[in-house]
Amino acid sequence: MAIELSQIATLRRVLEIFCTRHELEFADRPAIIAARELMKFADEGETDPAILEQRLDEAMQTYGERAPLASRAVASMGSSPVRHQ
Predict the structure, then answer these.
(1) φ, ψ (nearest 5 deg) of residue 80
(2) Coil, helix or strand for 32?
(3) Is 12 in contact with 68 (CB distance < 8 Å)?
(4) Does the reported pTM lie above 0.85?
């Protein structure tokens, strides 16, 4: 199934929200995984931004539980409330 331009815009907005919430850049590994998950949801026909956000949060939480300890440490560094500049 091809993703339409309007769907791409929605996916980007949901990804931007996710990245902001977790203090991630688009190039960060968890953000790339999140983008892949969003594209999978779109392929399944999901278009509602609120549902996409919810499904993404659930999928990424599950991903975090499955990820090796080193990957979780890297991922959690991006979600730390304290940022050193």
Answers:
(1) -65, 135
(2) helix
(3) no
(4) no
How far apart CA 65 and CA 50 sit, in angstroms, is 23
**pLDDT tens by residue, 7-66:** 999 999 999 999 999 999 999 999 999 999 999 999 999 999 999 999 999 999 987 766
Q: Say how far apart CA 31 and CA 43 lie, in whole Å.
A: 18
Contact (CB, 8 A) for 3 and 43: yes
Both tokens assigned to 52: 């996409």
3-class DSSP assignment, residue 21: helix
Question: Sign of the CA dihedral 9, 13, 19, 25?
Answer: positive
Structure tokens at 36: 């892949």
Shortest CA distance to 19 belongs to which of 34, 3, 40, 2? 34
> Phi, psi (5° rounding) for residue 39?
-65, -35
